[in-house]
Write a structure and sequence with these properties.
The complex is a heteropentamer of chains A (130), B (341), C (329), D (144) and E (664). By secondary structure, chain B is an alpha+beta fold. Chain B contains 12 helices and 12 strands. Chain C is of the alpha/beta class. The chains are: A mainly alpha (130), B alpha+beta (341), C alpha/beta (329), D alpha/beta (144), E alpha/beta (664).
């Protein structure tokens, strides 16, 4: 039977529908990522860490929530690997584990900045407009 | 002479069908056809079937034997199977006569065991004609349509069905049907026969005579100039020979099934360009010769070898089916010119 | 009833014989009854006078005879061609099967030839058949007279006559007709609408009656091979009798395929089949497919036309789609 | 897995220049396809006569597939165009006679498409297996 | 009955691995006609072939079946073996039990059973084989080279050197191709023009070589040794034989605003132009879309000025028909278009250029006269960023890029970086790379000198985005080894664009019936053993039309193609393919159905007298096949209804026997 680590990896791959083996580690996704600096792990590392099966560290790290879902990495990856979807799957994985919610509901109001368009709406529009 | 009312005809059929398979002519969209009886199927009252009853005794294709070949070793497998008893009902006089012609060929020494096997298991219940067709000319060959031969001769009048056993097999069959049939005299039958014979004499081809042909006339007809005109539009297809009840020529073929060889025989037609093709080639090279062979065989060669019995029974099928409407009647009229007035 | 009377043909024939344009005439000769007309070769005027027939049973198509006949002598042979015969005439010319100079073709307009099969199945003991315009009177020996509507006795090829236009003649008796848009493909469409099982059962039943007499092959003006593959022992498909269903199907599939694109739909095969198998439905299926896949094409319409099966374009339909097309057609 | 699990017999006519080379390429790349597919080499797909296809069915084949070069790539310029026309008419006629149309197929495979060749053979074998034994075009004498 | 020998090859473990070869040999012993059956380690080896020769002699075999690899590999080998042993080479059949059996079926029982069936099919076929002798066809001693780049030039020179006349067809007004546009070439940094122009001059002066410039091939007929090619000579409006190439007309021409393709549109040229100084043929060409005279009828300055009177406004396109024995394809490559890569802002800023444009900028004959200046404001660039693998190594289904590596970009980028650092030491050069691929002689040392001696900054990581800001280009890329996102304000960004075959390749392939792969590169007969030949006999491949390659490889492949052509042209007779159609006169209807389907027009008709079966004699029209022209496709055999037309080597009966053996 798959042990916990492989089960998680299989879950992420199946949820994201992405084959990490296609990545030729060119780094273009990180090169184009607007929130590269805030992130502890960067898009090309997401793919590599999922490939290596080390998903726990990803789920614990903050960088998973720094992703703006701008999909620039998906758009520009020459090999059609979709890092944004992988990180989306990792986030879902985190949420699914009980009590691991990144924010509680009442944290949100003060984080909302009125003149920036709602990030969730923007990312949903980008995600589902493809 | 036994009798059964027309209304109970189905019970007669089911009785016959109890101990042997019953075939009878049934109407289909393209003419009458011999089919195995099941209750609900009615007897067709059309004059004759499209395909003659020859098929029951001399089928179009018949498996003779199988061979198994392993390297140099050949093993012969006899694939003959004992045919079960069967009764052919509703055979007209001309078709019954054709069985005699076939018997002359297949049952003469050396006997054809395949034919003999089927012939022994078959019981013929012939049916007298009441309404002959314009293409009928069985009288030319001295066949009495009103009184056909056969194991059991049947007559169908308006209300009843008369059966008269003529042979051992016929008697045995009728005795088995004692229960549902009753004795009867033959007044209605003779009266029907008189009507039919009177009708036969009024047929357009009734006056056709065959006595110009027959035994020993080969030299007289062989080189007649009329053959050219008669045969010029013949296509050389095999229709006349394949619908004819008395044609008895067959070809033997082998079929390699991949894991053995099946040797079978199938009808052949003297009209085909590769009929009786031998190592020296084809004996009859032109269509005229092949055409002549067919009709000379019917009218001259067969009677010569079989003490005067013609091998045509006047059923009229070739008159109806030939694509170019050339047939034995036109040949006889053309060649035997004088005798038909 | 035919529009052109017998006398017109007889006079034309004897006139051409007399002035030497032709030395023999292909025509129809009287038989025993009204309906059994035999194609024959007349050489003298008085033969024509008393034996030549032109009526409602002259269905035979002479084109195929010309292959042998033109080889027999140097001078011309007169042949009477109905509109559908002229298509076969042209198709044989396209295939260089006979020398056009050796034939003097006279076009005869035709308004349908009666189907002996239908007459025989509607009456028994036929002594006389008289056709007066739209009714046909059949005198029988024992059942008195039967009058039937002429259209009921016409064969399918005449009911759905595809063209009254003569596409080949040296001389034409009467005026030339026009190409008609017949609904000759209705039967085929009806079959196509059936489910595969029904179609299989239909053809199984029809083809099982085949007695392999080769009448359809020997009468067909498109089947003119010197030695047919089915007669040639080393062709690999040599076959004299259909020992089982497969061989019945194979003979008819291969024959229909060989005449595909060359069959002029003259209907002779169905006319002569002793077992009344609707063989024209096979050839019409190919014609319908060719028309729908590669554009209207009538074999024999003009000499030298290139049959669709020996032609191609770069955008033809893929076989997979061709088969699926029938599903929703 | 029953013991005599029915395995379809498939005859593949492959044209020497493209699809046969595609089959070889599938071999080079060790791509797998069912062993019941047997390949016959013909100079061009236009060499396949309807008689061969009917012969295969008669002898017990359950499916016949004809592979050729992509239209336009034929080594003999127009070979596959004729195949396309002939097979369109033949398949339509077989369907007209009620024979399952999935039993016959034409596929264009170039010399560089080893993967497509293997995939086509797998897919075709699956379709034919789904149809079961060829009952409508079989010759009983050739059955074991 | 034939006496057949069956030889089953182990092919090391390739076959023996998943097929029980002993069982196959055993099973074949009982096949009808087989008198000898054995197996051996390597049938195609010398020892293997000796076994065959010995068996033929010992068992006086009349036919042999070799169960081995694909006939496309060793059919010729085994036919030679049979011929050497005195057996007709066409009595040999190959059962493909490697590529189509052992390699595709893993389980031994299944593989063995299939191998036996395939072997039996081959035996069934050889049983019906008849000895064939190949016909012969003459060879036109002239070659055609399509494409006038370095590949075409080198091939033509080598062929002419062997004494055979050659024609070069080039679509541009001059030969020279892409190499003429380059500045320096790696790894020796010698200037492209210096090594190319002497060869172009050799071509001009070599009387065996005829150049059809500004022309294209429109039609190819015939077959190996007898090609008939139609060449369309586009109207040049200048008489080639009179024009001296003085260039006076190009100066005087009033229309100066035509974008110059030679400099990739970075500067302009006049309507009547000579592409570059060393052009061969050194003849002016009028561009019909921009010449006032041709468009509106006004002007005509050039004809007035031309001292030699070489201008001819009435010129029309000319079609020339020529016969050739061999054709060499050298259609070359083009960089792919950069429109789809808007993340690098190629279409937004003039300072984002491709490497070929950089070549022109650095070239003395280029738009900036050799000094490297920014195309936007002609300033000297201080920071230059090179981006590697733009459009190469992309995912197959993305229509943007190409799946393959274009092979030459790493070397020419190192060359550019080195030259820039050498000429302008004050410039900072960054190269964003995924991997640097510099295999080959002195290649890696070249790349190391660029890094170590010239201080080029090689950054492992890909540029994500280039956004023009002011007169700077903000380049944002990842530096994977350092693990940071790098932001560089560059003055110039050079994209190493992927290369693809020239657009004229696809229609040409259809004309030549040569096959192509999905990226439009010509497919070679065999990737390892026959890289310069196309599967279509008589067609040879030279240069990047067959796949990405650099100049050294192109020249060596050009030489190889030339040697193949010479090998073909020095033969007087070509043994044709004996598997040609043959018609049985007795059965032929003369209906010319076969003539209509024959793609080569190999069938003609003759009237012959025959003794007919019914004792008459008749003159009949029968088909006759010209065995030299027929290529053996077999279309006629199916079109022929009566089966009179049959194909030697693939007879109807043989194929049916194979079908029977397979379906047993």
């Amino acid at each position: 039977m798959l042990d916990k680590k492989e089960l998680l990896k299989e879950q992420v791959i199946r949820a994201s529908g992405v084959n990490p083996l296609k990545c030729m580690r060119c780094g273009k996704c990180s090169g184009t990522c607007p929130s590269y600096d805030e992130m502890e792990y960067h898009p090309h590392q997401f793919v590599y860490m999922v490939e290596m099966g080390d998903i726990e560290t990803l789920m614990k790290s903050e960088s998973v929530y720094k992703c703006l879902s701008c999909f620039a990495c998906v758009e520009r990856c020459p090999r059609g690997v979709e890092p944004a979807k992988i990180i989306e799957a990792v986030r879902l994985e985190a949420i699914r584990q009980k009590g691991n919610n990144h924010m509680t509901a009442n944290d949100i109001p003060e984080k909302v900045n009125d003149d920036i368009p709602q990030q969730a709406i923007m990312s949903a529009m980008r995600k589902y407009s493809k | 002479m036994r009798k059964i009312s027309l209304k109970k005809i189905d019970s007669l059929f089911s009785a016959i069908a109890e101990n042997s398979v019953l075939y009878m002519p049934v109407d289909t969209k393209t003419g009458a056809k011999f089919e195995q009886w099941e209750n609900g199927k009615e007897l067709s009252d059309s004059l004759n079937t499209v395909r003659s009853a020859k098929d029951f005794f001399f089928p179009q294709t018949e498996n003779l034997m199988d061979f198994k070949v392993e390297g140099k070793k050949i093993e012969v497998i006899d694939s003959r199977s004992e045919t079960e008893d069967f009764v052919v009902f509703g055979v007209r006089a001309c078709d019954v006569k054709s069985f005699d012609v076939l018997d002359k060929v297949f049952l003469a020494e050396p006997q054809d065991s395949y034919y003999k096997n089927r012939r022994e298991h078959g019981v013929i219940m012939s049916l007298a004609c009441t309404k002959p067709n314009e293409t009928c000319f069985c009288t030319t060959f001295r066949i009495d349509a009103a009184e056909p031969a056969g194991d059991v001769v049947c007559y169908k009048t308006d209300d009843a069905f008369y059966m008269d056993a003529k042979t051992e097999k016929g008697k045995k069959l009728l005795s088995a049907l004692e229960g549902i049939t009753e004795a009867a005299d033959d007044t209605a039958v003779t009266e029907q026969q008189k009507l039919t014979r009177e009708r036969m004499s009024k047929l357009p081809l009734a006056s056709l005579k065959a006595d110009a042909f027959g035994n020993g006339k080969t030299k007289e007809f062989f080189d007649r100039p009329e053959w050219k005109e008669l045969s010029e539009s013949c296509l050389g297809c095999g229709t006349c020979t394949f619908v004819c009840p008395t044609c008895q020529c067959y070809d033997i073929k082998d079929f390699n099934t991949g894991h053995g060889v099946k040797r079978f025989r199938c009808w052949d037609s003297c009209m085909y360009s590769d009929f009786t093709k031998m190592s020296a080639g084809q004996p009859r090279l032109t269509q005229l010769e092949r055409f002549r062979q067919r009709f000379m065989h019917k009218l001259v060669y067969f009677p010569t070898n079989n003490d005067g019995m013609f091998s045509c029974v006047g059923c009229g099928r070739c008159l109806a089916k030939c694509p170019i409407q050339m047939n034995i009647v036109k040949v006889m009229k053309k060649l035997g010119g004088n005798s038909n007035g | 009833m035919q529009e052109i009377k017998r006398e017109v043909l007889v006079n034309k024939a004897s006139e051409l014989l007399k002035n030497g344009t032709v030395d023999r005439v292909f025509g129809w000769k009287k038989g025993e009854f009204d309906y059994d007309i035999t194609p024959a070769l007349f050489t003298t005027a008085e033969d024509i006078e008393n034996e030549f027939v032109w009526g409602d049973f002259c269905g035979a198509n002479f084109s195929k005879y010309l292959i042998k006949e033109t080889g027999k002598s140097e001078n011309k042979v007169l042949v009477f061609l109905k509109p559908c015969d002229t298509y076969s005439f042209n198709q044989l010319l396209t295939e260089h099967r006979f020398d056009r100079e050796k034939v003097y073709a006279v076009g005869v307009p035709c308004n349908g030839m009666l189907d002996t099969g239908k007459i025989k199945s509607s009456a028994e003991g036929i002594s006389k058949v008289t056709d007066n315009g739209d009714k046909v009177v059949i005198e029988t020996l024992f059942d008195g007279e039967i009058t039937l509507d002429r259209n009921e006795l016409l064969p399918d090829r005449c009911l759905n006559c595809k063209s009254k236009k003569h596409v080949a003649y040296d001389e034409l008796l009467g005026e030339d007709g026009a190409v008609l848009d017949s609904n000759r493909f209705d039967e085929v469409e009806k079959l196509e609408k059936m489910t595969p099982d029904e179609r299989f059962a239909f053809w199984q039943n029809e083809l099982s009656r085949c007695i392999r007499c080769n009448a359809c092959r020997d009468v067909c003006p498109a089947c003119t091979c010197e030695k047919c593959v089915f007669d040639n022992p080393n062709s690999g498909v040599e076959n004299k009798a259909a020992t089982n269903e497969f061989e019945e199907k194979m003979f008819h599939i291969i024959r229909a395929f060989h005449v595909a694109g060359r069959c002029t739909d003259c209907g002779e095969c169905s006319r002569v089949c002793p077992q009344h198998i609707p063989l024209h439905l096979l050839n019409r299926k190919f014609i319908k497919d060719i028309d729908s896949f590669y554009g209207e094409y009538q074999a024999g319409a003009e000499v030298g036309s290139r049959a669709p099966i020996v032609n191609y374009t770069t955008e033809d339909i893929e076989p997979g789609d061709a088969v699926r097309r029938n599903e929703n057609a | 897995m029953q013991v005599n699990e029915y395995k379809p017999l498939i005859v593949a006519f492959c044209c020497n220049w493209c699809s046969y080379a595609g089959a070889d390429l599938a071999g080079n790349n060790r791509l797998n396809y069912p062993a019941d597919v047997k390949i016959i080499r013909v100079p061009c797909s236009c060499r396949v006569n309807p008689m061969f296809i009917l012969r295969a069915f008669q002898r017990g084949a359950d499916g016949v597939i004809l592979c050729g070069c992509h239209p336009g790539d034929c080594h003999y310029t127009s070979g596959n165009y004729y195949t396309r026309r002939r097979m369109a008419l033949l398949f339509s006629m077989l369907d007209y006679l009620g024979i399952e149309k999935e039993r016959t197929r034409v596929e264009w495979v170039s010399a560089a498409e080893g993967a497509k060749f293997a995939e086509t053979m797998n897919d075709f074998a699956k379709t034919v297996a789904a149809l079961g034994e060829n009952k409508r075009l079989e010759d009983l004498r050739c059955k074991k | 009955m034939q006496r057949i020998g069956v030889f089953v090859c182990h092919c090391g473990t390739n076959i023996a691995g998943t097929v029980d070869v002993k069982a196959v040999a055993e099973a074949l012993k009982t096949e009808p006609g087989v008198v000898f059956s054995t197996d051996y380690q390597y049938m195609c080896s010398q020892a293997g072939q000796d076994i065959i020769k010995k068996a033929i002699a010992e068992y006086n075999l009349t036919g042999i079946v070799v169960c081995s690899c694909s006939p496309r590999m060793h059919e010729a080998t085994f036919r030679k073996t049979a011929a050497a042993a005195g057996l007709n080479p066409y009595m040999v059949e190959i059962a493909n039990i490697r590529e189509q059996c052992s390699w595709v079926h893993k389980e031994v029982p299944i593989g063995t059973e299939k191998a036996i069936i395939l072997a039996k099919a081959a035996v069934a076929k050889v049983n019906l084989n008849a000895p064939l002798t190949p016909g012969e066809s003459p060879v036109t001693k002239r070659a055609l080279v399509i494409g006038g780049g370095i590949a075409g030039i080198q091939t033509a020179l080598d062929i002419a050197d062997a004494g055979f006349p050659v024609d070069i067809v080039e679509t541009k007004p001059t030969i020279g191709g892409k190499m003429a546009q380059l500045d320096k070439t790696f790894p020796t940094l010698d200037c492209a023009a210096c090594i190319l122009t002497p060869k172009m001059v050799d071509v001009a002066q070599n009387d065996k070589i005829r150049v059809f410039s500004y022309s294209e091939v429109t039609e190819v007929g015939g077959f190996v040794g007898n090609f008939e090619v139609t060449i369309k000579r586009r109207a040049r409006y200048v008489k080639e034989d009179i024009c001296t190439g003085c260039g006076l007309c190009t100066e005087k021409c009033p229309q100066k605003k035509v974008p110059n393709e030679f400099n990739l549109g970075m500067d302009n040229r006049s309507a009547i132009y000579i592409p570059f100084a060393q052009a061969v043929p050194k003849v002016a060409t009028i561009d019909p879309n921009h010449c006032m005279k041709l468009k509106t009828g006004k002007c005509g300055v050039c004809s007035k000025v031309c001292t030699a009177g070489a201008i001819d406004y009435e010129a029309k396109d000319e079609f020339v028909k020529e016969k050739y024995g061999a054709i060499v394809v050298a259609t070359g490559f083009n960089p792919i278009s950069m429109e789809k890569f808007d993340e690098f802002a190629y279409s937004q800023s003039k300072d984002v250029i491709t490497s070929l444009e950089l070549e022109r900028l650095m070239n003395a004959a280029g738009p900036t006269g050799g000094t490297l200046l920014r195309p936007s404001d002609h300033e000297h660039p201080h920071t230059i960023v090179f981006v590697q693998c733009v459009g190469s190594r992309c995912e197959a289904c993305a229509e943007k890029g190409k799946e393959y590596c274009s092979k030459i970009c790493c070397m020419y980028t190192a060359k550019h970086a080195m030259l820039i650092r050498d000429k302008y030491p004050d410039t900072e050069v960054y190269v964003f790379y995924i991997d640097v691929r510099t295999p080959g002689k002195n290649f890696d040392e070249f790349y190391r000198r660029a890094v170590e001696e010239y201080g080029v900054h090689y950054i492992k990581g890909m540029v994500g985005k280039v956004s023009p800001e002011g007169n700077k280009l903000k380049v944002q890329g990842s530096d994977l080894i350092y693990g940071r996102q790098l932001h560089i304000d560059a003055d110039l960004v050079v994209l190493a664009a992927a290369i693809e075959p020239d657009k004229s390749a696809r229609p040409l392939a259809t004309m030549l019936t040569a096959s192509m792969d999905t990226n439009d590169f010509f497919t070679e007969a065999h990737p390892k053993l026959r890289p310069v030949e196309s599967p279509t006999a008589g067609v040879f491949l030279s240069g990047t039309c067959q796949g990405p390659k650099d100049i050294p490889e192109t020249v060596s492949q050009a030489g190889a193609a030339a040697s193949k052509v010479i090998g073909l042209l020095c033969k007087d007779k070509l043994t044709g393919n004996p598997c040609v159609a043959h018609s049985d006169e007795m059965m032929c209807n003369g209906c010319s159905t076969c003539e209509k389907v024959c793609p080569y027009g190999a069938i003609s008709y003759v009237d012959k007298e025959f003794r007919m079966p019914d004792r008459t004699t008749k003159v009949r029209r029968v088909a006759v096949v010209n065995e030299a022209v027929c290529q053996g496709c077999g279309a006629c055999t199916v079109a022929c209804m009566s089966g009179a037309m049959d194909l030697k080597g693939f007879m109807n009966k043989q194929i049916m026997a194979e079908v029977d053996a397979i379906c047993k």
